[in-house]
Structure prediction request, 680 residues.
Amino acid sequence: MEIPEEQRENWGTRGGFVLAAVGSAVGLGNLWGFPYKLYSYGGGAFLIPYILAMFCIGIPMLILEFSLGHMTQRAAPDAFGRANKRLEFVGWWGIILGFVIVTYYPVILAYCFSFIYYSIESIVTGKSLPWAGEGIQGVENAKIFFNETYLGLKEGVETGQIRTNILIPLVIAWIAMYFCIFKGVKLVGKIVWLTVPLPFIMLIVLTIRGLTLEGSMKGLVYYLDPVWSELSKPTTWRFAFGQVFFSLSLAFGVMVTYASFLHRKSDINNNAAIIGISDFATSFVAGIAIFATLGGMSYATMQAGNSVEVKDVVAGGPGLTFVAFPYALAQLPAAAWWSLVFFFTLVTLGIDSAFSITESVLAGIVDKTGWKRCIVLPVMSLVGLVFGLIYVTEGGLNWLGTIDAFINGTWGIAFLGLLECVVLGWLYRLDTLRHHANERSDWHSGRWWNFAIRIFIPIVLGTLFLWSLFDDVTNAEGFIKTPSGEWIVPNCVGLIVVGISPIIAILMSLIKSPLRTGQGKQAEFKYPTHAEAGGIGTTSFLLSVIGLLLVIWVLYFGKENLVLIPLFFGIAGIVISYYVLEKHDVGDEKPSLLSRWAGIISTLDISVAISIILIGMTNKINEKEIVYRTADKLSGVSYVILGVVVLIIVGGLGWCFYRAITLASKDQEPEAVDDDLQID
Ligand code: PHE
Prediction:
């Protein structure tokens, strides 16, 4: 089905869109999230779940979001609404969680601005960096500088005063974001030609500099030497899958919105692959830069007689970026200059991710209400800034960490991604989207894509979600109350935010849009109204319901050893309903509603069953322990891993560009789609 072209602004060029999407995907998550997670969860071994997740979940979901946005030419809420009126709230839900992110993401940019300031100050005055210090004492100094001097963190203080030293750079960050997007996506399409290549170049510079330091190999050992046993820990898989999601900016409506501004004839599948692989490449290289430098630091401190090992400084999240790395740089020659380069890289990495979220919230509101961008944007920025004030208080970083864990952990994002796949996969004619993407793409996705969206991704995400839920609920240390009965306020707030966002989303979707009756109408998709696929759909429904009842019974009565029975029913239900949909959701046929719901219920049933099995396994394993690798040289296996990763990145990107270029040089439309999916 082709939707009439609407007057919608667009990116101008294919490059503009690809760069903007890469800009959104490649962000702080690549530099502070990925290297740390790789290091903590098995080094090179972590790459197996990560690459699997990237190719089996990340890229298929990017294709899903791109086709939805592109086909409907609408930001997320309206895009879902056009697929099916009742689904609009899914889009709003993502937008609301995205808005929560945009209240704190710029705060991290603000930290970077401050560190840029300190670096410049040190260059100008010729004094050493304010956190500099020697040996283990230096590590302490860096910690004290960040936590106490800069953040003003105090034991037992929940919020405390607003810190003007963070507020000022925060305002600067918002102003910068404002000017990047105030003119619309055409300008964004130009700005990203600067904000995307620049951090890449600087990352390469940082990597070369790291690798040429004496002792860098020892750092890489920490990063790459595989600890295979980590693969048997479900947490490793949980982090790998979660990281792919966050890193590709999936489920917040960003990619839907960006694709809605894409020119009608643009490629979708190939762009998704290019964006996914580039994001992975950036993360991987960022890790090399960081660990090579930490290796160099370790060597330098050893030479100076006050040895600090890589493992002594590595800490997750802000710790790595604002404590360990600044410390490592301070140990090396020309420290202030390198610190300037590093934090500037972070700003350029993060700013396009930050404004991509603002843009998606903005486009959601503008598409719904028809209000003017030039009014909505400043108001929204101000509201974002005001909500952000909580993170610039003395207790701000704790708040930031907690809220981030709620949104990006499996509570917010995984659930939403799951919902997205389930509703589009089972309640909507998924082939419409696949067909739409294939029609204009350099290569075509086969039926494996349907399988990924309908079955694989929902079950994986459903399992992640339920498993975290069980984990959190059964956590002995208490989740919203400490064992001594005190409320854990940030957790409560996080829970409330996650809890009320669907309610607000539903309310938003109920508001009548003045635009709906006009131009929006022509793009409503109509289903055929006759021809039901009967009996076998009902069978699958019965199987799935029995499976669900059984799994609830297993859960309630603690009969974990019988969990395979509901699992079996679930699998039977999902196989049959999948078959019905593949067979009968074509042409003017229409599968029964029962067979559609059978798929959804079976997904739930299977996910609960698998998470029960996983919970049983995690209890037996000590999750927190990190196995340290201390060899002096990279092992042979690590070189093999390095080779494979380079092959995947270079080969993957090479192939994508080859497809794009050969097609462009032949100056032809992509070949006709030769499957049986002609719709309407
Ligand atoms: N992908 C970005 C990063 O890796 C973060 C982001 C999440 C951006 C969600 C937009 C939406 O930092």
User: Anything to note?
Assistant: The first strand starts at residue 532 and ends at 533. The chain has 26 helices and two strands. Confidence is low (pLDDT under 50) at residues 1-5, 517-524, 671-680. The pocket of phenylalanine is lined by residues 24-25, 27-30, 101, 246-247, 249, 252, 254, 353, 356-357 (CB under 6 Å).
